[in-house]
Amino acid sequence: LVRHHAGKAIYCLDWEGVATKYPVEWILEWMAYVENETGVKPLLYVSESQVKKYQKVAERDYGLWVAKWSTRKPNIKPWNIWALWQYAVDHKLNLDMDYFNGTAEQFKKYCRRS
Length: 114
Hints:
Layout: E1 12-14, H1 24-38, E2 43-47, H2 55-59, E3 63-67, E4 84-90, E5 95-100, H3 104-111
Parallel strand pairs: 1-2, 2-3, 3-4
Antiparallel strand pairs: 4-5
């Protein structure tokens, strides 16, 4: 596992492509497992078009890393806030960037054990 990264990195489940065919319970089991093993709550990485399907994840207070490849802020309901937003910088070059929604100290809190 990746326990040695606790306190230094944000854990995240990348949920796209074929994964979206699996039930939300799989996400919840994985999130709980990672949290139990590391003491750190992971984020869910998902595209804006899929966000509304994962209300149960939001209700369990897992953070959101949302992908929306434009310059307009993403619609993230049922979450109230996003931790990270992946957006497109240059479509021709297939270049994406990520924006953190907070301060350096808030970033560190996402990495810390509860």
